[in-house]
Amino acid sequence: MHHPRAERRLTVGFARASQLAGMVAKSRAARQIEMADILAGMYIYEWERLSKFWDDREPVEEFLRRICSISPQRWHHWIELYDQQRRQEEADLASPWRRLMQRANSATSDKTGDDEGLPYSSELEQVLRAAAAISPFRDDQGGQSIPVLTAECVLLCVARNAESEVGRNLRETGLDLPALERAARDPRRTPRR
Predict the structure, then answer these.
(1) Domains in the chain and their CATH numbers?
(2) Are 147 and 135 contacting, i.e. CB atoms less than 8 angstroms apart?
């Protein structure tokens, strides 16, 4: 069986944030995953790690809730659904064979944002290509080196996107861009999960 070559890999944490972004997009009946959706996914799944790039977290949390349209009811629903899926994955990975298969198959991505095939918007795809270009992490696939995307790399590229209102507003929340860039580009640190 021939598998298409992946353009990039995602850390497990960023892959889960991407799955959540797909859920957010589907909840608003969208046909593609937008930049606000990926930020929502990172906010829901990666916030504990990413929040360190803001001294005052209140403005950025307000901004993220606003652009992501996260109401308390939606937040609760997504967290419950995500927790259910995570528990099922953990149960499925109980056997060593399933863990090996999951590890071999996980963290790959093509042009879809989630397992059910919602594509990324062209703006988000552009950001992901930029993140792939700056990522210090690589993985070998069939003798070719492909980039591994982390949430830090993607967040940095969203904030740097000069053409995007979302990027401009994100920068205005007090994001410590130099610290985020150091974290995103540091090849000595191991990508999380």
Answers:
(1) 8-183 (1.10.1780.10)
(2) yes
